[in-house]
UniProtKB/TrEMBL annotation, chains A, B:
Keywords: Hydrolase. Residues 213-312 form the Peptidase M20 dimerisation domain. GO terms for molecular function: hydrolase activity, acting on carbon-nitrogen (but not peptide) bonds, in linear amidines. InterPro entries: Amidase_Cbmase, Bact_exopeptidase_dim_dom, Peptidase_M20, Peptidase_M20_dimer. It comes from the Archaea. Pfam families: M20_dimer, Peptidase_M20. PANTHER family: ALLANTOATE AMIDOHYDROLASE, ALLANTOATE DEIMINASE-RELATED. This is M20 family metallo-hydrolase. The keyword Endoplasmic reticulum does not apply.
Amino acid sequence: MEISQGRLRADIEANAAFGAVDADEGRGRTLLTGSDADRRARERFVDRLRDADLDVRVDAVGNVAGRWTPPGCDPGAAPVAIGSHLDSVPRGGIFDGPLGTYAGLEAVRAMQDADVAPGRPVDVVAFTEEEGARFGIGTLGSSVAAGGRDVADALDLVDDEGVTLRERLDAIGFRGDDGIDPASWSAWVELHIEQGTRLTDAGADVGVVEAITGITNCEVAVAGEADHAGSTPMYERTDALAAGAEFVRDVERAAEEVAADRESAVATVGQGTIEPNARNIVPGEVRFQLDLRDTDAGTMDRLVERCRTSLARLERTRGVETDIDRYRTSPPTPMADRCVGAADDAAAARGADAVRLHSAAVHDTANLADATDVGLLFAPSVDGASHSPREWTDWEDCATAAGVLAATVRRLAAGD
Amino acid sequence: MEISQGRLRADIEANAAFGAVDADEGRGRTLLTGSDADRRARERFVDRLRDADLDVRVDAVGNVAGRWTPPGCDPGAAPVAIGSHLDSVPRGGIFDGPLGTYAGLEAVRAMQDADVAPGRPVDVVAFTEEEGARFGIGTLGSSVAAGGRDVADALDLVDDEGVTLRERLDAIGFRGDDGIDPASWSAWVELHIEQGTRLTDAGADVGVVEAITGITNCEVAVAGEADHAGSTPMYERTDALAAGAEFVRDVERAAEEVAADRESAVATVGQGTIEPNARNIVPGEVRFQLDLRDTDAGTMDRLVERCRTSLARLERTRGVETDIDRYRTSPPTPMADRCVGAADDAAAARGADAVRLHSAAVHDTANLADATDVGLLFAPSVDGASHSPREWTDWEDCATAAGVLAATVRRLAAGD
């Protein structure tokens, strides 16, 4: 079973032309859901599915699937599904999404070329709006398919220009009426770029994900008193920024302590505002946006608890008023043992150097875990660059990972 | 020598009508240099100076002075000058500036009414653009008058609408050609609102300023590495905000330690930016604006040194790159002993409860210290509110402070 690196590369490069942007370094693209670039990318994908004799379906939110029913297989058997997404963030890279989507198709073509005929059908899928770059909600298409979000609610979402997803999909001819139902799948496997440096650091060919991290977002407010920077002596101040600075340090310290035992635990204060933010006024309020992640839900709870403890201490020691709103939690998602096992075996069989790791970002796979057994593979990212034209995966690494994907699917679709 | 509280109040209230703004609480005004409100405020001031038989001069940058030559005095003797400014910040209060300006005139009227005839002329002065709200440079008019800034340079300054100070003054008819030369004065005394709570905390009637604080402004940059908030383990981060948080705490701690010995020392990180300021990206850079103040230049240097030490430590311990730019320093200004002494004696003679203090904000008086002996008096500010419609000084306190001003001028202008 041979992967054609040239065929896979040609697909990814052709796809990269849709929404291509100028970049000083690397190759970038902006592919927003419902744009003309999206229409052309989807039409080409459909053409390529049909070129490989796959039966194409498009569902109500524009998710696209091509079904291969191998000769001699039971067409009623639960299929194995593979794929990813085609959309990008603004000025994103050319591999994030398209690699997994076209590697899925290449896996089918490789099986076809080698006369490998699994006992189950194989679906090759591209989900709508994974990045959330146009409608603000990431992994949108897969969440609808997996039953986690209502179709009508999704179609009613409005972008920054006041246009609904329904209108965007109608405009490009990709609001379909076919069914794409992950609950009917035997398993799902996605190949994605790592967006980190663990694979390149380890010199590995492919990553076998054991769990997708959970993410908790909190908004934290610290209120002090805005005062004149000259006439307010130090002992009379209730400086919201000074208090907030202690909080930022406490969050970092808490995460470092937890991460000493489990590297997957991270906490980030990435965003903040100061009020009134004037050089000669003692800050009256600061607000922070927090991003806390781990593959263990209890650890995430513990990190939030450490934030609360810090704020309670600041209220006592500094007289500030504080508030923490844990407004969103996406729980950790363990991968199915049989998918992880199949991927391990596939890598070994193909002589690929695989390492186990966790996914520090959320992917469509996390939604699909609610409906079926899921697996996730990573290809190496040069320098870990992501969501940038500098994002890169060497073509040889793309092909190697696609080969592991094909061998994984072959095992999962072998038929029981 | 009686102060007429009603006459002083009528002047301040009439002046408050120019540029008056609506406010839920208090009384506010926006009086920007060269506006129609400024023209009307100046014209009324000139009328009131003339009503008291003062000879009015207007200099090249619009500073206005009215000279009283008391009967029997030597008209060639160096005058004593008193006054303040009429302009305001956007939505400022009605006392900041006008109190000192009209109390100066009231002091002259009180001496006239009481047939007090000092041996020196008295100038009552309103300086242009003290707040810097239109042309970005505070205490502009007094800096030109005192020789610290070139007239042509000042007139060429451009506001946000692209209009020069020259054009603004021409438009309201207040670009004059008279001389107003602080170097020719025997002394200068300004009455201003405190903009703090030390007087009300002490239950005092008037503050006798010993020194005006120096101010140093620094811009600080801390550069780390922007990274993905999920895929970058804690131990691989160079988080600019976490480092910046340590810096903010260090600045606060340094100021608290210094302020344990001298309350006038304050340090404020009031303004900051985070780049890229996204919830799911480890901050790559933070920038802070610092405001460090004290009445002792050596202490200010020491505070800046503590900032540098903190940044050097962060470079070592966290691998960030840092930069500190001390881009502006206005040195501390001691008041002249004879002005402070005259004010103390004046307060005692009038039965006013006076306290010695420092000025935590810069005033026109700081510029004039380069040219003549200066003194500065404070009237109590309710709740310390300043640069806000909530700014307030009780009318009785205005009159008491004006009385101390009049008695101070009487002593300084007695003639040697």
